Amino acid sequence: LTEDNYINIECGLNLLSGIFNFVYDDIITKIEGLVTVFRTFYKTNSLSLKVRTSRTIAEMITYCEKKETKLLSEFVFEILLVTLKCFESGESEDNLKYSIKALAEIINSEPSLLVKHFADLYTLMFKIFLKKDYLDENIRELGFEVIVSLVERKNKLFLNDTIKVKAFIEELYKYALEMEKEVTDDWATPVQ
Q: What pTM was computed for the model?
């Protein structure tokens, strides 16, 4: 594992993500080996490789059964850390977007994996949607979407925390008002 072959590894992970559901029965028997390899990838200095690893794990969780999902669940906090590093580094909005999408994918398939990390997830997504100078405005929207999706599926997360609920709703309204300023007259009153 050297920096020279990181791009090749990322391509391999991309392929694995794309075909995992088709070769599930053959690959799942080697899940422990993949877990070991993923641990190694997270130890590298390559943020891009860590993001690609996170996306692959999220994709695998979508198709895995409970036993295999439990093995992959050890990486959930690592995915949160990678997302935080992407946010803090400001290097690549694409990496940040892909990390957020990995979290969204986990929420859609196995939301319970993120329940114990909700406080960290909430804080991270809050930071992401408070930042307003992304080139890709969809990043802020994804931050909101992650919280909404998880709370829709695990509504007890917001049940007794009125401070978080209030802060989230306030930011959501502010975001909606920002969007309203972008509405043109042509869009607001379409030709019949």
A: 0.85
Angle at 18 between CA 103 and CA 35, to 5 degrees: 60
What are the CA-CA distances from residue 65 to residues 72, 106, 149 (Å)?
Answer: 11, 13, 21
Tell me the C-alpha distance between 174 and 185, whole Å: 21
DSSP assignments along 15-44, one per residue: HHHHHTTTSHHHHGGGHHHHHHHHHHHHTS
45-58, pLDDT tens digit by residue? 999 999 999 999 99
Asked whether the beta carbons of 140 and 134 are under 8 A apart, the reply is yes
The 10s digit of each residue's pLDDT in 137-177 is: 899 889 989 998 998 998 888 887 888 888 888 877 787 77
Question: Torsion over CA of 9, 13, 14 and 18, rounded to 10 degrees?
Answer: 150
Query: What are φ and ψ of residue 20, in 5° steps?
Result: -55, -45
Total length of the chain: 192
167 CB neighbour count, 10 Å cutoff: 13
| CB contact burial 25-38 (16+ within 10 A = b; e otherwise) | eebbeebeebeeeb
